[in-house]
Amino acid sequence: MAFSKEVTVQIKDNDRYGRLVGEVILPDGISLNKELVFVSLAWWYRRYTPNDRTLKALEAGGRAEKRGLWADEKPIPPWEWRKMKRGPRKR
User: pTM (2 decimals)?
Assistant: First the structure.
C-alpha cells in the first residue's frame, strides 16, 4: 500500500526508547495504520491509543471474522513473542 509512495507521518508520541510513534497517512488520505489493523496484519497497540474506538472496532471485526493474524487459534502479540525469544531476565 505504501511501496514507492510518498507518505505523511503524523507524530503522536515517543516510545520508551525514544523512537517516534505516529500514524502513516497514504497519498489518498487513508491511514495505513488503520488499514493494517482492518485487514488484521497488525495489532492495535493500546498503550499509545487506549481510547481509540476506531482501532478497537477494526480489531474486533478482524477477530470476529478470523482475518489475518486472527485466523490463528492462539495468535501471540509481538510484545509477548519478543519476551519469549529474549528468555527469562537475569537478576
Answer: 0.83
CA 61 – CA 68 distance, rounded (Å): 11
d(CA 46, CA 80): 14
- Residue matched to cell numbers 517516534: 20
Measured CA to CA, the distance from residue 59 to residue 30 in angstroms comes to 17
Amino acid 55 reads L
Q: For 7-56, how does the pLDDT look when each residue is reduced to its tens digit (9 = 90+)? A: 999 998 898 899 999 999 999 999 999 999 999 999 998 888 889 999 99
Say whether 8 sits in a helix, a strand or coil: strand
Look up the domain containing 64 and give its range.
8-86
Whether 39 maps to a domain, the answer reads: yes
